[in-house]
Amino acid sequence: MNSTDRSPNSAAEKLDLSWLYRGTSEIFPNQAEPTSADDNLVQRLLQSDRPLRIKLGIDPTGSDIHLGHSIPMRKLRAFQDAGHTAILLFGDFTARIGDPTGKSEVRRQLTEEQVAANVRTYLDQVRPILDFDTPGRLEIRYNSEWLSKLDLSKILDLLATTTVGQMLAKEGFSERYEKNTPIYLHEFLYPLMQGYDSVALEADVELGGTDQKFNIAIGRDLQRHFGLRPQFGLLLPLLLGTDGVQKMSKSLGNYVALSEDALSMYSKLEKTPDHLLKSYVELLTDLPLDQIPAAPRDAQKLLALTVVTQYHGDAAAKQAQQDAADLVKGKTAQADSVPEFSLAAVQFPAKLFYLLSATGLCKSSS
C-alpha cells in the first residue's frame, strides 16, 4: 500500500476519497443531506481538525489469519495512509467468550495462555499490512485493560441499555431461540463488551464485516449513553473461499492463510474461480479494476503475483510463479511419458498375467 504521509484535511484528501469506498459494503449512518458531521462520515473526515480514531477489533481465537481477515486490515491501512490513527484492538478479554455472531451453538472458551499465544502470531502476520513505523499511526490495545476492571455496578449499567428483545433479534440468537438451542447469559454480554470497547477507545469509526452491524450499532448506542460522539460503522464484505461458494474459513479448508509459504499461496490464488476474480482483486489488492486482464487465466496470474508480493516480497513472488509453472510442466511431461498399449487382441474377461503379457510388461504368461 501507499505509505505516503498525508494530513486528513489536505486538499488531495478532500478531492479523492476513492480509498474509502473501494470494497466497502456500507457506511452507517450515511445521510445524503447531513445536518451535522455526525450524520455523514465524509463530512466528519473533511471537517475534523484532528486525525480520526479508527477501531478494528480482533478476537484472537485461533492462531492463523487468512485473506478474509485481511480485508478490514487493508481498510485500516488505508485510513492510516490518509493520516488517521488506526487502533488494532485485541479482544483478549472477549476472546474468552467468543463472538456468538453467526454461531449455532455456544463457543468454546479459551484460556488466557491460549489467547496470549494467538495474539503473538497475529501480530507477526499483520505486519506486512499495517504501518507499524510512522509515529501516531497505530495503537495496539487490549480490551482487558478496561473490561477486567468493570465492577458489578458498571455491568448493570451496561445491561440496562439493551433489552432482551433487541438481543434476540440478533442473527444467530434468533435462530437458536427458535430451535430451543441454549443461549447463555454471558453470550448476551459480548455485544455490550464490544460496544464498551468503543467507549473506552473513543472510536470515531469502527470497521467490521457485514455480520458485525448489530455489534457496531450497540457501540454507537453506548457512546451516546456515556456522553460521547457516536462512531460510524464501516462494513466490509465477507470473502468467499477458494471453492467459490462458501465464506472463507479454515474449518472448511477453502482458505489462504497469511502465514503460508509463497508457492502455496500463489498456487491457491492462481486457481481463483473466474466469478471471484474481480472481488478478489478489489478486496485483496490495490490494482486498478480497469486494468484486470480480460482473459481469466491472465487475471488469475496477476492476482496471485500481486498478493504474494504483498506478503513475501517481489523476488519470492516471482520465484513462486516460476515454481508453479515448472510444476505444471512437470506434471504434463510425466503424463506424456506414460506408455500407451492396445488391448484389442485380448479377450475379456482376462486374467492379470495375460494383460501384463499383452502390454509387454511381462515377457511370458507362464
Q: Work out the count of structural domains.
A: 2
Mean pLDDT: 87
Q: Can you tell me the residue ranges where pLDDT is under 50 for at least 5 consecutive residues? A: 2-14
Distance between the termini: 71 Å
Oligomer description? single chain
Strand order within the widest beta sheet? 1-6-5-2-3-4
Task: Give me the secondary-structure category.
Answer: alpha/beta
Q: What does this 3D model show about the protein?
A:
α10 (185-201) crosses α11 (213-225) and α13 packs parallel to α14. Strands 1-6-5-2-3-4 form a six-stranded mixed sheet, sandwiched between helices. The chain is 45% helix and 8% strand. It folds into two domains: 11-236, Rossmann fold; 262-336, Orthogonal Bundle (Tyrosyl-Transfer RNA Synthetase). The chain is globular, with a radius of gyration of 26 Å. It has 366 residues and is α/β, with parallel strands linked by helices. It has helices at 11-15, 18-21, 41-47, 67-81, 112-126, 144-147, 152-159, 164-168, 173-178, 185-201, 213-225, 262-269, 277-284, 296-312, 314-336, 352-359; strands at residues 26-28, 53-58, 85-90, 138-142, 205-209, 232-236. It has 16 helices and six strands.
What does this entry show, briefly?
With 366 residues, this protein is an alpha/beta fold. Helices cover 45% and strands 8% of the residues. The chain folds into two domains: 11-236, 3-Layer(aba) Sandwich (Rossmann fold); 262-336, Tyrosyl-Transfer RNA Synthetase, CATH 1.10.240.
